[in-house]
Structure formats: structure tokens, C-alpha cells
Design goal:
about 280 residues, alpha/beta, Alpha-Beta Plaits, 13 helices, elongated, magnesium, magnesium ion binding, EC 3.1.3.3, DUF4072, HAD-like_SerB
Length: about 280
């Protein structure tokens, strides 16, 4: 196995300590924020995890034979994963309702309430809001997570298709698709009448099962095996989707998601996914 160690600032003594702990054959710089410990013994996994947590480092065990070109599909959540905000919370802020909506969002992301019901509750609070608020959120508040464009460029270079699947809204996914050259997107559609939000969602809600179904639909269309799929998210409604992938990545995620993911990234940006996919 190779041990990937990542962080905004990785002291050399920490790398040497991890190399000693795992009997690694060599330490190889992958990027400014990532190092690969070659031929590391993975038996002391718990000790390595504890050391990295104590020193605010991300770590992940990667089979030495893994190659990024082994994969064919990268599936991503949108809110608080590909982008830094929860769009519905920012839309609600235009109504002066951000605290109420954010509280429901947080409970849903922790898995404490049903996602579809939480979405209906939150969207109902937006009734009467002018549709132009959506464009304001996109223009003024939506930012890509650090490293997002680097990750997507690496995926394209390796021939990996991309699916952005969100419990959020098509207004945002449809604008991000051409901007980021994404291959597929899926999300919920807000009903609009006379230029204002009605407080309702059209059609079936893209919830946890809906995300998993989209992953499998696109995977089947591309004629890929589960072993060729990567999925990443941050909330409880991403867990079913992540369970359908060979590699699941919890990005700045809730504890329930970190506990079930193949890897967790808490210290670095989305470009931290790249070293976990193996050698180029």
C-alpha cells in the first residue's frame, strides 16, 4: 500500500514519523500539499489515523497498483461539496429567513429528518420570492470549493466522465454544467409563476435514493462497473449514492458521512481527491 498524507502545511518531522511508523520505503512529493509514502505497511492504520488527526492532516491508504485511468465516472454532490454554499440557505437569506432554513438544512444533512420532507419545508418558506434572487445568489455568493477546477481537469485528462447530482436546484446545476464542462447534471426544479417562486418543487424530488439512482443510471449508460465509480459528498443524503461507488469521499463532511466513506478530506481542497485515485 501507499499512504497519502495531505495538509496545507506538512512538517518534515511528521512525514518522517509516519514513514517510521509504517516502514515506508520512500517519501515522494505529489504536490505542494500532498505526499506519498511508498510501500507502507498498513497494519498500524489506527495509529496512523490518530497521528494524522492530532496533527491536522488528511491520510488515505491507496493500493500501489491503482491508476487514475482505472476509473470512468466521478459523481459529485453540489452544495457544500463542489461549491462552498448551501444554495437554499442563501436564497432564504434574500427573504430574511436564513436561520430558519439553515436549521432545517443542518438537521437533514445530519440525517435527523427525512431529506424530501425537509426540502418541501424549506422551499415552502420561499413562496413569493422574486425569481431574480436565484441569479443574485449565483452571481454574488456561489463559489467553487478550493481545488474543484484542478480535480475536474484531472478527471477530464484521465477520460473520467462527471455527474453533478444535487438535492438542490436545476437553476444552479444548469449554469455550472457549461461553466465546468460537466457531462451530466441532475437536481430539483423550483416552480415559478409570474416571476416568483411558488414554494413548491416540480416532479420527483432528488433525495438520497434519487442520487443513488442517478449514479447507477449514468454508470449503466457508460457501461461501467461499480469498481470504476467515485462518489463524493458531505451530508447524510449522499450516503446511498456513495455506497454505490467503489471509492467514496467525504469532503468537509458530517461525522455520519466520514464514518462510512472510503476517505475523508477535512484539511485540503477537492484537488486532494486526485492522489487518492492512484498514479497517473
Amino acid at each position: 500500500m501507499n499512504l497519502i498524507v495531505q495538509g496545507p502545511d506538512i512538517p518534515t518531522p511528521s512525514l518522517k514519523q509516519l514513514a517510521k511508523l509504517t516502514g515506508a520505503a520512500a517519501i515522494e512529493a505529489v504536490s505542494r500539499t500532498a505526499f506519498r509514502l511508498l510501500d507502507a505497511d498498513d497494519r498500524p492504520r489506527a495509529e496512523v489515523a490518530a497521528f494524522c488527526e492530532a496533527h491536522q492532516l488528511d491520510c488515505g491508504w491507496v493500493p500501489a497498483e491503482r491508476r487514475i485511468r482505472d476509473f470512468g465516472l466521478l459523481v459529485m454532490d453540489m452544495d457544500s461539496t463542489l461549491i462552498t454554499i448551501e444554495c437554499i440557505d442563501e436564497i432564504a437569506d434574500m427573504q430574511g429567513l436564513k436561520p430558519q432554513v439553515s436549521a432545517i438544512t443542518e438537521a437533514a444533512m445530519r440525517g435527523e429528518i427525512d431529506f424530501a420532507e425537509s426540502l418541501r419545508q424549506r422551499v415552502s418558506l420561499l413562496a413569493g420570492l422574486d425569481q431574480s434572487a436565484l441569479q443574485r445568489v449565483y452571481n454574488e455568493r456561489l463559489q467553487l470549493s478550493p481545488g474543484a477546477e484542478t480535480l475536474l481537469a484531472a478527471a477530464r485528462a484521465a477520460g473520467i466522465k462527471t455527474l453533478l447530482v444535487s438535492g438542490g436546484f436545476t437553476f444552479f446545476t444548469e449554469r455550472l454544467q457549461p461553466r465546468l464542462a460537466l457531462d451530466y447534471t441532475a437536481a430539483n426544479t423550483l416552480e415559478v409563476a409570474d416571476g416568483k417562486l411558488t414554494g413548491r418543487v416540480l416532479g420527483d424530488i432528488v433525495d438520497a435514493q434519487g442520487k443513488a439512482d442517478w449514479l447507477n443510471r449514468v454508470r449503466a449508460e457508460l457501461k461501467l462497473d461499480r469498481a470504476q465509480v467515485i462518489a463524493m459528498g458531505d451530508g447524510a443524503n449522499d450516503l446511498k449514492m456513495m455506497a454505490e461507488a467503489c471509492i467514496s469521499i467525504a469532503y468537509r463532511a458530517k461525522p455520519v458521512v466520514r464514518a462510512q466513506a472510503s476517505y475523508a478530506l477535512n484539511q485540503v481542497g477537492l484537488d486532494g481527491v486526485i492522489p487518492l485515485l492512484g498514479l497517473s
